[in-house]
What we know:
Blueprint: E1 6-17, E2 20-31, E3 35-39, H1 46-54, E4 61-66, E5 69-70, E6 81-84, H2 96-106, H3 111-124, H4 140-152, E7 158-162, H5 170-187, E8 190-195, H6 198-204, E9 207-212, E10 215-220, H7 222-227, H8 232-237, E11 242-250, E12 253-256, E13 259-262, E14 272-278, E15 283-286, E16 294-303, E17 308-313, E18 319-324, E19 333-338, E20 344-347, E21 353-361, E22 364-367, E23 370-373, E24 385-390, E25 395-398, E26 406-415, E27 420-426, E28 431-436, E29 445-450, E30 456-459
Parallel strand pairs: 3-8, 3-9, 6-7, 7-8
Antiparallel strand pairs: 1-2, 1-4, 4-5, 9-10, 11-12, 11-14, 12-13, 14-20, 15-19, 16-17, 16-19, 17-18, 21-22, 21-24, 22-23, 24-30, 25-29, 26-27, 26-29, 27-28
Helix pairs in contact: 2-3, 2-4, 3-4
Amino acid sequence: MGDSNFIIELSHISKSFGDKQVLDDVSLYVKKGEFVTILGPSGCGKTTLLRILAGFGTADEGEIKIGGADITEVPPHERPVNTVFQRYALFPHLNVYDNIAFGLKLKKVKQDEIDLRVRKALKMVGMTDYEWRDVNSLSGGQQQRVAIARAIINRPQVLLLDEPLAALDLKMRKDMQMELKEMHRTLGITFVYVTHDQEEALTLSDTIVVMSEGKVQQIGTPTDIYNEPANSFVADFIGESNILNGEMVRDEVVKFMGKEVDCVDKGFGENTPVDVVIRPEDVYIMPPTDSGMFEGVVQSCIFKGVHYEMTVLTPDGYEIMIQDYNAFEVGRQVSMIIKPSDIHVMHKERICNTFEGKMIDSTHVEILGTSFVCGEQANVEAGDVVEVEVDFDKVELMDNKEDGITVGDVRFILYKGDHYHLTVRTENGDNIYVDTHDVWDDRDIVGVRIQPEDMRIKRVNG
C-alpha cells in the first residue's frame, strides 16, 4: 500500500474513439470505504471511465492506481475490483448458487469455504433460501441482488456498479437504492457507481462527480453540488433551477431581472457578468405586497404531490419557477421575495463565442472548418491566424440546414428565464453557443449563420 489516503487514484485519463474524444484529462481520487457516484447525461464518458477502471478498456493517456499499486496495465481478472452491470450478465444455465460461486470455483477455493461464503453473500443481499432457484424465474430486482452477491463474494476492495438499477421499475429502484446504501454500510467496501439519475446520486452518495462532454465539471458532497453548483451545467443538471443572466455590481450586490438586490457572494469584481441560480423552493410567493422584490402574474400551477409548482411571469418577460406548499391560481398577481443567502452567484463560463481561425483573404475567414464572409478586415492579411469573437445572440439558427453556412446539432439547452442558451455541436466537433427566443429540441439538426458585421476579428500574435 502507498501512504496515500486514496484507494483509487485515476490521474489524467484521456480516451478517444476515432476522432471523438470521450474522456478529456479526467482525474479522480476515491477514499477507502467511500460511496462515489459518477453522474452525467448519456455520452458524457462515465461508463467509459468505469470500464477503464475495471480493465475492460484502456486509456490513451493517464495512470490508474488501486491501493497504491499501479494497475494501468493489469488485466481485469487480476484487479481487486468487481463490476455489476446494467444487464446483470448472469449465466442462464446455472442456478443462483452456481452463479454466485462461479468466481470462487475458478479460483479453486475449497467447497466448504464456498458454501459458507455463498450463504453469507445471499444473506447480505436478502436472498437466503433462493440458492437452488433457476435465475430465469427471478424478478429483475432479485436478479440484481444475485449479480451483487456474485460480485461481493470475491471480497473486492472496490465494487463498480454501472447503472445497476436502470432496468427496474420506479418502486423497486427506490427499494434497491435503500438496500444498496445499507449494503455499502455493512460491507465497508468502496463503491463507485455510475448513473444518469440525479435523484439516485443525491440519495446514495458520499461524493458526486458530475461529468459532461468527457470532462469533470464538479466533485463534491450531494449538498455542495446542490447548493453550490460550480457552473450552469451542474446547476441545471442537478434538480430544478432558475438560472438567469446577472451582473455583479460589487461585493454582496447583484443585479438580475432588472433589479439590484443583496446577496452574500463576494470576490467577483465590479460590474462583472455572472450567472445567478435560484432554486424554485427558495422563492417566497405571496399576495401583492409593497415589500416584494419582484412582481408577476401566475402562468401555471401544477400539484406535484408534496408541493405546487408554479411559473410566474414578470412585467419584463422573465419566467420564474416556484415550488410552494400553497397554490396561487393562474392569472393571479403575486409578489416574490428571495433571501440574500438563497441567491447563488456563479462565474460565467464564457461571455461570447471565441473561434480560432485563419484568414483566407481580406474578406473571408476560415472558422468551424468552413469559410465565412467576414467583411473587409484591416490589419490582417491572407494566412494570418486570427481569433474571431461572436456574441451569443448574433448566431442565427435555421430549420433548413441547407440555409446555414455550416451545420450542427443542439446538444444542451439552458433556459435563462427570458431566453434559451444553446450549445450547438458542429459536424467537426466545435461548440457554438447561441442565445435565442426560439424553441429547439435536443439533437435538432440546424443550419448556422453568422453575419459578416457580427464578427470581431483580431490577429493572434505569432
